[in-house]
Amino acid sequence: MRTAALALSLSCLAPALAAQTFQLVMCETPPGSGGFQPIERFLVAGTNGALTRISDISPAFTNDPVCPVFDNEYELFVSNRAAHSGNGSISRFTFDTSFGTFSPNGSITGNFVTDPVQMAFNPVDGELFVTNWQGGKLSRFVFDAQRNAVANGTLTMPDGNPQLGVAVRALDQQLFVSHYGAVRRFARNANGSYTHVGNFTLPGGSSIHFMSFRGDELYVAEYAQGKVHRFRFDASGNPVANGTVSCVGALAVAFSPDRNEMFVARHSIGGFQRFLYQTATDSWTPMAIQTGPSAGGLATSVHYFSVYGSGCAGTAGLTPTLQGLGVPQPGNTIHLRVQQGQPAGFGTLILSAFPGNVPIFGCTWWQDVIITNTPAFQLDANGRFTYSIAMPPNMIALDLYFQGFLLDLGAPNGFLSTTAGLRASVL
């Protein structure tokens, strides 16, 4: 896409974020070890919206699951501690665009994945980091063009303490790995390796567990005290304490897409508690508690991409689809994937700032006011094409609307098929 034109156009647009339904998943994780626990799933009707329980992920697909993490809104990774037997693994699942159904998508083993706990993706390059409770090595994976996990070595801890939580700061790719009594800090080197630069502790903290970023603020769950500790960063990248949020049994934290709701998993006591952010006071107000079994890690889908409307069929009644991958945040790269088009056919993607509903040649144009479009591209022999877009670093928060238009002489209208609309929310 013509990214210069895109950046210029975006600078003139006002924010247009809308509340979005998103998925929340939570591992049922007994203290110590377990087995045969499902992974709970909920649809959340936007920030502070109603919860709807949807089908669990069966324990038949996992092995003592501990922590989930979304690579993108369509793929979930789950760490399996296997009752601390040393036979840990990472399960992968893919979801449909409505989150209604899911499919097992293989597993990751090897590269010292023995007793995995929390996982985190580098938000800049997509590398996966996996803590291992014992053994002193953190596992690293990158992904090839077919999304197969490729071992990328390990990172040895500077001490003999267990590993629990892991998080990566987007701004400088600084890596954080917790043990019960402290959080280790690692600086990223130019060659992608990491160097230990020190630890920081929590006031009275003796049972530190999982960590998550909310923007550029690090949230650290401390189970024994029942608190979530907040840390901002100074100009040198050093963490600076920014208060705490109380929640009994706090083990893990996740946020809504707009970051204005926080979910805190309650270990032992069970379930999770919801909190709403108060901008005026930079504080969190406790809301409803969702009861349930002892909770482990939890994650939200962060529904960056939403399919709306419907596509227009082409040859043999096959309707092309448009899928968004990646995290549409300033400075990141996203990927738009067209599938089910006419093999070796041609097409273009149109970008708009607003949704629409305009009949056109027996199809529907699901946009209004064109910003720009891609140059014509050719689909491969399977009717697929992926287009990458570099998001400008000064991009503002807004919703973008994409749609694919494909040349297809076998379509019912004689020349055109289309995808449904795709909304991308830049947060």
Structure write-up:
- This protein is mainly beta.
- The chain folds into two domains: 3-12 and 305-426, Single Sheet (S-adenosyl-L-methionine-dependent methyltransferases); 21-300, Methylamine Dehydrogenase, Chain H, CATH 2.130.10.
- Helix content is 2%, strand content 53%.
- It contains one helix and 34 strands.
- The chain has one helix spanning 3-10; strands spanning 21-28, 39-45, 51-57, 65-72, 75-80, 89-95, 102-108, 116-121, 128-132, 137-143, 149-156, 166-168, 175-179, 182-188, 194-200, 208-214, 217-222, 227-233, 239-246, 250-255, 261-266, 272-278, 283-290, 295-300, 305-308, 321-325, 333-339, 346-360, 363-373, 377-378, 385-390, 398-407, 416-418, 421-426.
- Strands 25, 28, 29, 30, 32, 33 and 34 form a seven-stranded antiparallel beta sheet that branches. Strands 3-2-1-24 form a four-stranded antiparallel beta sheet, with no helix packed on it.
- A hairpin with a 2-residue loop joins strand 13 (175-179) and strand 14 (182-188).
- It is globular and about 70 Å long.
- It starts with a helix and ends with a strand.
- Residues 1-18 have low confidence and may be disordered.
